[in-house]
Amino acid sequence: MRVFSFLLFLLATCSCTGSYTQNKPESTLTWDQEAQSNIRLRPKYGLVEKTESQKEADKEFVEATLNGGQFKGNKRAASDHMIKLGFVYLNRGDLKTAMYRFNQAYLLDPDNPEQYWGYAAVYMSLEKYEEARLQYQAGLELQPDNTHLLTDLGTYYIVMHINNRATNPAKAIVSLDTAITIFNRSYELDKHDPNTSFKLSAAYFSNGDCKNALKYLDICDQSGGDPVTDDYRAALAAICSPKK
User: Fold this and answer.
1) How far apart are CA 220 and CA 201, in angstroms?
2) In 8-137, at which residue ranges do the beta strands (DSSP E only) sit?
3) Positive or negative CA dihedral for 223, 228, 234, 235?
4) What global pTM score does this model have?
5) Cβ-count burial 194-216 (b if 16+ within 10 Å, e if not)
6) Rg for the chain, CA atoms, rounded
7) Measured between alpha carbons, how far is 102 from 131 in angstroms, rounded to an integer?
8) Gap between the Cα atoms of 176 and 165, Å rounded
9) Which domains are seen in the chain, by residue range?
């Protein structure tokens, strides 16, 4: 199995909560067309001025959610819950409902940087990569040390590496180096996230750096090892021949 194939493993584990890139139920054209008339398919509802009835519905939703027994007025907890639900739907391939939930998270707590993680995940699934990058960066402006955003921004650069390998090798190399830099930054902030340590391992392996590939695979295993496939382990062992 070629080293290149492990870059695809990174895409299959792009989100800490699942593999949203495996599902593409919507075409970009269809999504864009529907989003023109359905503001719920736009991040933050497109920041358009809502009707009075829409504003009243939003107010009732926020009040009902926050006043319920589950969240007891905690805006961030309620918003995080909607983001979690959004990723559940995203992993099922239901991008529309996922975007609805991410926008509800925005209603509950407009300052929650995790909403941008969700918005970007939808755009990554639609292969609208520039839009995804902008969402990651918007979230990081709010919280520069958010490891969910950092690790998936690094994965964006892995996509850029893959897309430019044939047509622009120099840009592809820069993209891989950028991804590794971002993954390392995320890892330094949270050394116990197996998603980040696995991506570091696979990225280093793709870059021909067996020492670090083995190092971060071991770290990933110590953190649970959930994202790692048997094929990856076998190829790493065969090519890198770890010392006993």
Assistant:
1) 8
2) none
3) negative
4) 0.88
5) bbbbbbbbbbbbbbebeebbbbb
6) 19
7) 16
8) 10
9) 1-24+144-244 (1.25.40), 27-126 (no CATH)
Q: Which residue has the tokens 């964006």?
A: 156
The residues pairing with 18 across neighbouring beta strands, listed in sequence order, are 15
What tokens does 2 get? 């070629």
Distances (CA, A) of 80 to 27, 74, 118: 28, 10, 11
**Within 10 Å of residue 166's Cβ, how many Cβ atoms?**
8
User: Tens digits of per-residue pLDDT, 42-77?
Assistant: 999 999 999 999 999 999 999 999 998 899 999 999
Let me know: does 75 contact 63? Beta carbons within 8 Å: no
Q: Hey, which residues does 15 pair with through a beta bridge?
A: 18
Q: From CA 217, how far away is CA 138, in angstroms rounded?
A: 30
Residue 72, both tokens: 């007891």
